Amino acid sequence: MQLTLTSSDEQSFQVDREILKHAGTIETLITSMNLDDAEEGAAAPMPIPLPNVNGTTLEVIIEWLIMHKEDPIKEEKEDDGERNSEDIDQKDKDFVKEFGQAKVIEVMLGANYLDIKGLLEVTIKTIANMLKACKDHEQIRSTFGIKNDFTPEEEAQIRKENEWCEN
């Protein structure tokens, strides 16, 4: 079955139903609208609006979904407290390495909205690795485009209050 996904900026994308299995939000919508009953090869009766994802981001997400269409659906696993941001598949590393920080964040937000656990995990780990590569708060601000809105006095006060965690 062919589905049409419409982004927040009114871009439409025709996609095969089969590649959307990782997108929990769309899966739920398909099930609740009884679209699973449509004939093979038929088009869905109406486009699926995605008001929280723009066209550029949706295109990237669809590309990732196509790349992972043969993969099993990622299940929620019990939180064992262990975190490792280094264990990203090579094909996913290659996929996100060209992204700037703004694009990684947009894709992460889109993956979260669409409930694509695998892509969400990849983007979160990528952002964690970007943070780990920063040496100090100034580099974090520079990398993520964060404006310093503290006065020098406020910054000095914060440093004094948090001396215990320095070095």
DSSP summary, beta strand count:
3
The number of helical segments is 7
- Helical fraction equals 40-55%
Q: Report strand order across the widest sheet.
A: 2-1-3
Low-confidence stretches: none
Structural class: mainly alpha
CA-based shape: elongated
Give the helices and strands as they follow along the chain. Answer: EEHEHHHHHH
Mean pLDDT: 86
Largest sheet: 3 strands, mixed
Percentage of residues in DSSP E strands: 5-15%
Separation, N- and C-terminal Cα atoms: 58 Å
How large is the radius of gyration?
20 Å
Please give a quick description of this structure.
This protein has helices at 24-32, 55-67, 90-96, 101-113, 117-133, 137-144, 152-161, and strands at 2-6, 12-16, 48-49.
